[in-house]
Write a structure and sequence with these properties.
71 residues; 3 helices; 86% helix; mainly alpha
Length: 71
Amino acid sequence: HRATTLSMSSQMNALGQIAGGPILGWVGKQVSIVVALAVSGILHFGPAVLFGASYRDSIDDGHTPAKEFDD
C-alpha cells in the first residue's frame, strides 16, 4: 500500500509540474515572477485544504497515517 501511495503521489507531482510549469513560466515572463509565485501559492491552497480535511477525518475515525501502514 505504501509504495503505491508514494508512487501515485510522485506521478501526480510530475504531471502537475508538466502541466503547470509552462503556464506559470509564461505568467512569470509576461507579468512578473511575483505574480507567478502568487498564482502558484493560490493553486496549492485548494489541495492543502483537502489534505487537511482528509487527515482530520481519519483522526476522527480513530485512524492515524502511521496505523494505516502497519500491515
